[in-house]
Amino acid sequence: MFEARLVSSGTLKKVLDAIKDLLNEASFDCSDTGIQLQAMDSSHVSLVSLSLRADGFDKYRCDRNLTMGMNLASMTKILKCANNDDTVTVKAQDDADCVTFVFESKKQEKISDYEMKLMNLDQEHLGIPETDFSCVIHMPSGEFSRICRDLSQFGESVIISCTKEGVRFSSSGDIGSANIKLAQTNNIDKEEETVSIDLQEPVTLTFACQYLNSFTKATPLSNRVSLSMSANVPLVVEYEIPDLGHIRYYLAPKIEE
Amino acid sequence: PTNQPTLMNFFKKK
Lengths: 257, 14
What we know:
Chain A is mostly beta strands. Chain A has helices at residues 9-19, 72-79, 141-151, 209-215; strands at residues 2-6, 25-31, 34-40, 46-53, 59-62, 66-71, 87-92, 98-104, 111-117, 126-127, 135-140, 157-162, 166-173, 176-183, 196-199, 203-208, 224-229, 235-241, 245-251, 255-256.
């Protein structure tokens, strides 16, 4: 028996919004420690790694490890049937071929359940080594989203260049070029607005805008984001999901031909 | 001109 309950359906909707741009379907691996998902987009350029801890749920039970392959468009249809403040419970029997979503309104006067068929997905898991990154940038997630959106008007790629002075995002194309520089801030009063840089050595890498913009669909999950970079390794963009877990995106850098 | 490699250029399959 698997059962996981969240007081707010809105949280699960945000998690789904954060992955469905990149993935059409995904396997949710459930164990007694929580729910994990690791999947690459169809072009194998980016990877989503989601972790939801058991203790972040209001109720969590997983008697046997279970992998639930879900079509994310179908899951989206079902979650549209929930109000954001409805409680959601995800349930499945051991070895089940379907999963049930139960939505309960605040006052319990409306209870609905939706059953969805599960899929057998061939998943390719990648072994991701622990890396000591040359630089880690912590910044407001809304600012990162804005920068990706603004720069993608100019070109298909963004160059991210991090030094001890700050971080520079730049893009260029047919209409011209754009540069955005962020300096490290020391505003302790408004910690969530700070930009901080842990730098071992300066790094400059180039990334496709399209994927960065998809990653920023996680912005509603967290007001902070971190960007971890080293020369010639994939970028890691991480959003902490408060009290529940995290979502990490990996993106292969572009290289000079 | 830049080239877009896949993640398999960096990570091994499990």
